[in-house]
Amino acid sequence: MALVMGVDSSTQSCKVVITDADTGAVVRSGRASHPEGTEVDPAAWWTALQTAIAEAGGIDDVAAWSIAGQQHGMVVLDADGDVIRPALLWNDTRSAGAARDLIAEIGAEEYARRTGVVPVASFTATKLRWLRDHEPAAAARVAAVALPHDWLTWRLRGFGPDDPRLDELVTDRSDASGTAYWGPGGYDRDLLITALGHDAVLPRVLGSGESVADGAGRAVAPGAGDNAGAALGVGAGVGDVVVSIGTSGTVFAVSAEPTVDPTGTVAGFASADGHFLPLVATLNAARVLDVTARLLGVDHGELSRLALKAEPGAGGLRLVPYFEGERTPNLPDATASLDGMTLASTTRENLARAAVEGMLSGLAAGLDAVRGLGVPIRRALLIGGGAQSEAVRQIAPLVLGVPVEVPEPAEYVALGAARQAAALVGTEPNG
Question: How many Å apart are CA 158 and CA 154, to the nearest integer?
Answer without folding.
Answer: 7
